[in-house]
Amino acid sequence: MAGNAHSHGGQTARSLVALRSVSKTFSNGTVALKNMSLDIREGEFVSLLGPSGCGKSTALRIIAGLGEPTSGAIDWPKANYDAAGRAEPEVGFVFQEPTLMPWATVFDNVWLPFRLRGMSRSAARERVMDALAMVGLEKFGNAYPRELSGGMKMRVSIARALVTRPKILLMDEPFAALDEITRFKLNNDLLRLWENFGWTVVFVTHSVIESVYMSSRIVVMAARPGRVIDDIAIDAPFPRSDEFRTSPLYNDYSRTVSQALHSAMGANDHL
Amino acid sequence: MTLIQAQDPASTPEDPETVAANEDVLATPSSRRPERWLRFVIPVVMLLLLLGVWQVYVTMANVPQYILPSPLRIAQALGTDWGILGSALLVTLKITLSALILALIGGVVLAVLMAQSRWIELALYPYAVILQVTPVVAIAPLILIYAPSTQVALLFCAWIVAFFPVLSNTTQGLKSTDHNLLNLFEMYRASRWQTLRYLQMPNALPYFLAGLRIAGGLALIAAVVAEFAAGSAGAGSGLAFRLLEAQFRLNIPRLFAALFLLSMTGVVIFLGTSLISHLLLRKWHESSIRREN
């Protein structure tokens, strides 16, 4: 496949970011993460899968630079971002809610990351329109968020995360609040984008269906304390489509991942 | 760019909703037209009816005008005494509006300061509350002693009363910013000023405007109350003093005329602040969205 020049989850790809024995304890004493180590390689689509309270969102926020770990370190190999001359690497973040500014148009919402860097509306126009075109919303630049459906708002949120062309896209259960039809559609659209542009995605979810369908690798986590219990490579070819959803291979992986998840749940006798 | 084609057919399931929503909006004015007429006609008819009953009652029952003047007599007083009432209205308006503007500035500046630091909030908020809860009539005599002129004293009294709703609403608005959006700004390394300017201030706007509507009414009330307390006489006196004066002289038609002007001032302030609020929020805020069901 022509647009698929980068390797998906191949062991040869270089490390983009690594968590080294990261632990996070909140001020109320909750151990959100205990000794988590994870090496994310360039071009991977990694899902962090687990029950609520397993620290998957906490791990994602630590990678995003929101809140320091209590112990351990995050390692960004310098070669990956030093060319841009920035102190820290660029990340894109998509929340569970669209998290748009209701007073700003779709265009202005996507312009925000550039605006915060002091780039004018006209200077950013081309990049913003490109990002909107990527998610199929180029005609909705002047609309306000309240005029859009839930799925369209999420697309705006994705366009905003992608507009700066970050090395890594972090997504915190982005489609959990959507209906299944919209969700499947956004799953496919996100996969198409990833296959074409080849960035790295870390995708937090509690859905086995979603993670097996999209990921090149699934990290299964358990709760109390939050920790990694399994790391499963999904060796199915890309591009994936609805045919993959009904294939035996998909079923096998779903079973494997479900079992891993089940043992994650079983590790907590009070659940 | 080939992606656009890949997405278009599939994105249609979402589009009809939006299109349908737009059609609803377009259909609204025509389907509401008869109702709009009534919304204007009914209050006017009701007003004329009330005034008519009042006029007929006063004429038929021969009520003396120092007890209850007829609407026509009040209108006449408004005309003949316009020289006195008009200049008094101007004085009251000037105090009310300057107090309101100062209250907006003071309220917003204090709110921004308090939102910046918990320490500043702890230090200042109690005094804002004390100023608010102490009846302005009780502080007025003191202010009159310290203020260089009566006008300044009146202005200060009206300001004390009007600034609190602006302060407390704006503070609430600045603080109730979506936590995820704050995180997003942090991730993009926004400066404190950028976060305030692009996120917290727009977020606080609806709260501020609600405060403005309350403050507008309160500024007028406080200006009148302060003038009652100050009892200033002479050329610089406002409507409240003219009203008291008319009462002493048993010039009840003029009292009613002054009262009418005060009410109208309050109504105009309310309409003005509501209009500002509507114009600023109509595009995006929930409060200005018309729903069919």
TrEMBL record, chain A:
Family, per entry: Belongs to the ABC transporter superfamily.
Stored Pfam families: ABC_tran (PF00005)
UniProt xrefs under InterPro entries: AAA+_ATPase, ABC_transporter-like_ATP-bd, ABC_transporter-like_CS, ABC_transporter_ATP-bind, P-loop_NTPase
Protein name: NitT/TauT family transport system ATP-binding protein
Gene3D superfamilies associated with the record: P-loop containing nucleotide triphosphate hydrolases (3.40.50.300)
Entry GO MF terms: ATP binding; ATP hydrolysis activity
Species, as recorded: Faunimonas pinastri
Domain ABC transporter: 17-248
Keywords from the UniProt entry: ATP-binding, Nucleotide-binding, Transport
Highest rank taxon of the organism: Bacteria
UniProtKB/TrEMBL annotation, chain B:
Ranges for domain ABC transmembrane type-1: 89-277
Highest rank taxon of the organism: Bacteria
PROSITE patterns from the UniProt entry: ABC_TM1
Entry keyword Membrane: yes
Gene3D superfamilies tied to this protein: MetI-like
Primary localization: membrane
Subcellular localization: Cell membrane
UniProt cross-references to Pfam families, sorted A to Z: BPD_transp_1
Keyword RNA-binding recorded: no
GO biological process annotation, one example: transmembrane transport
Keyword set, alphabetical order: Cell membrane, Membrane, Transmembrane, Transmembrane helix, Transport
Disordered: annotated span: 1-24
Xref: PANTHER family: ABC TRANSPORTER PERMEASE PROTEIN, ALKANE SULFONATE ABC TRANSPORTER-RELATED, MEMBRANE SUBUNIT
Protein family according to the UniProt entry: Belongs to the binding-protein-dependent transport system permease family.
Protein's recorded name: NitT/TauT family transport system permease protein
Organism: Faunimonas pinastri
